[in-house]
Amino acid sequence: MKMTMPMDIQKIMELLPHRYPFLLVDRIEEIEEGKRIVGTKNVTINEPFFQGHFPGHPIMPGVLIIEAMAQVGGVFALVNDDIGDDKVTYFVGIDKARFRRPVVPGDVLRFELEMLSSRRGIYTFQAKAYVGDKVAAEAELKATFADR
User: Fold this and answer.
1) Domains in the chain, please, with CATH?
2) Is the pLDDT of residue 1 over 80?
3) Residues contacting 93, CB < 8 A, separation 6+
């Protein structure tokens, strides 16, 4: 499936089943077929998780940064291998997760994922989330697709 870049939120919503408040990627900047993908999320104070994480000191939960990286990886797999909408994505592993700096309202998260392998239907990505030129989080992510 050939995509023009950048990919806006409307196209992302055609590909991913996630919706507000759980759609955590706003834009896909580039896809290098079979290799890598770059996406972004604009973090605003209006995110519902900031009400409780943490009042008076809002920080984006690390697990949601990981989820956002996974959603970008899902876009990559769906576009790269033209996986149909009769499939659903399942996480099968998160390894080597590290959180390097807090992500706060006003930050723009840039997700850079490199595909390490695609074997027996399991995609493995090296994923990094940046704010500016600083790594905010990183992990090795594994996912697969199954029938709905």
Assistant:
1) 9-147 (3.10.129.10)
2) no
3) 140, 141, 142
